[in-house]
Specification:
By secondary structure, the protein is an alpha+beta fold. 26% of the residues lie in helices and 32% in strands. The chain folds into four domains: 95 residues, Immunoglobulin-like; 137 residues, Sandwich (Immunoglobulin-like); 118 residues, Immunoglobulin-like, CATH 2.60.40; 277 residues, Alpha-Beta Complex (Spore Coat Polysaccharide Biosynthesis Protein SpsA, Chain A), CATH 3.90.550.10. It is elongated. The N and C termini lie far apart (86 Å). The N terminus and C terminus are likely disordered. It holds the Pfam family Glycos_transf_2. It comes from Sinorhizobium terangae.
Amino acid sequence: MTFDDRTRGASVVFGDAKAFRLGSDVAVLILDVPARLPSAAKCTLVMQDQPVPLVSTTLSLTTGSQRILWAMRPGEQPARGQISTESGNLQTVTLRPVGELPPFDVEALFAELAPEGCIKFLSNLLTAWRSAFRMSRDPLFVGVVEDALHALTSRSRPAKVACPVAEGRYLVETAISADFGEISAVYALSANVLLPLASQSRIGIHGEKNLRPCHLIVECSRLPQSLVLQGKRGVAVRELIPGNPRYPSLQAWWTERGRAPELREFVVRSLSGVPEGGAAMAADLQLRTPLPARQIGKSPMHPAAEVDLALALSGGLLAGGWSHDPTGILAGIDYLKEDGTVVPLDGNWYEFPAWARGAKEDSRTDVTGFVAWLPLNEPLGTLLQPRFQMRLASGAVKPLVPKPQPFEPTAQRNRILRAVPPQHAIDQAFRTILAPALQDVERRLGRTIEVDYTKDYGLPQEAPIVSIVVPLYRVLDFLRFQLSGMATDPWLAKNAEIIYVLDSPEIQDETEHLLGGFHLLHGLPMKLVVMNRNGGYARACNAGARFARGTVLVMLNSDVVPTSTGWLQALMRPLMEQKGLGAIGPKLIFEDGSLQHAGLYFARDRHGVWLNHHFHKGMPGDYAPAQVARSVPGVTGACLVTRRDIYERVGGYTEDYVIGDYEDSDLCLKIRRCGYDIGYEPSACLYHFERRSIRRSQDYMRGVASQYNSWLHSERWNDDIADLMAAGSGSEGIASFGGEAEARSAA
């Protein structure tokens, strides 16, 4: 196969297929499709030893015809092949080894190619062909790319490294044509090397002479000579100016340039993806140099507004605040995106009566509160001050900028729980606004929770029969009484291990000291599991269960104290004898002897949400109906006994309830769904000094956590609960007790 008719600068005809050297061991075969063939005709290359891979592309000619290129690795001996269409054989070709082929001539290829064909060819070089044949470091291939770039780009513009962002990441500044479009990929081009770079880019809105400012954050171990920018509309080359960066550090750059909002948000988003502290650095930079907060003050005649909640989460943006529109000219509130576009918040918006501080000190005025959830395709990163605007009916806009927002998941969760007053926390607020935000934060929080430390106190090598898991959160007041009650129970002391899970690691030293003393005093085998941070009741219980060695699991609150010995045997006996029993709970009494728990059931509130209630709560401890062992819809997690295999089968406690509530009934319903029953055993009786630890959590008591948990529980289990309550449970049925029991938030 020859290329005798090739002359530089002249039009080359590929009516007969011709082959060239594309790389050190890669050839490309080129054929112009005959004009007689329909445009939809499909040409295929078939060889006796079909090359793998075989990559083809079709390029448009200015004449309206098409030029086909096949890239492949030919063998060491000449090989024959057939180029065919559906109608038959088109040409017979002989492909010689790469070393015998002429070099690839870009100018010859581009002759008669339409502009879009040239761009498509270069895109194929950069992407599919480079990757398929692993030619990033092939000098011949890189030379072809350089020739194509030279033919398509008039001249290389400069680019300057502004500053290092992190190890191996650089902020690069340049300019680009206004009609270039978005940058889809960036490549590092140096002598004999073409490598794709992980990168992020931002093209500004305003510029000079049809050029817009362009900023790139590129990842590379060593800065290249040039950058190749690829977009849907073309390719651009930027030559990096040699020398030191303009700023020695990102902090120095930020001090001078970090107040430009759009550029600031681009750097924050990029920095947030840097592992090992990138998000923390982004937050620190914003806190050091915050944007001035902006609100529109309240006026009797003019609209006013403030955004005081603006959490940039991984799945979207939660915004909240208030507005006041005395004359009816407020059209809406919009979120301002990094690229300058605006997104109205009213697509997923909930309003409620609220108040704002007035002009006079300690004065309040009535306003309209709002909260909105805006799903986003790309996370905003650790952005502490998303920007908004108040839009008037006239089209005029006024900026709204919140104060810096929290970025730590627990602090974000607490802000969400206070976004809506409890009396206005209804389904409309939860379903599409607060619930997605809370679920987002809980997922992030869960990824940060782990066991930080464990310590054993006399655990024998032989596995016990029972593992008692007790989560601890701040309150250690009842440990002395709880351990004394268990230590004086001979069977328990012989057959059980106690696993204390500390969910407030700030009191680790105090807890270790107490448990060490109690172990010396009582000799009970114990393990202390310390979490790295507070993660909530369910995560603490599940962490403790993972260390359990017993066949039977007892989930026990730290404020539950035995009234006498034998309670654990009384609960284990039916659990082990009745194979259909999945979990069981005891009678719990308050310190005055009145009933706190004799099993739990469900009843709807005025909004139709299922709430957990306790049978006979507040009645005397010897109230006759509470002395009957029976099946119940559920039992409280204050003392819940189950088999470890069942607990593991259902996945333990569900961890997406906030702080600690409704996990116990959720667990019971999961066990029921697996075909097991839930039992109540009154012969086992313990004191429960109810909810002492959760009262220490102000965010739970003051916010909407309880309403959210009950809403989430109802959403998840509505059909199961409705069927269960309709069927009744126990010998007396459930409905007859619904009016006597008091609702509770958690136990």
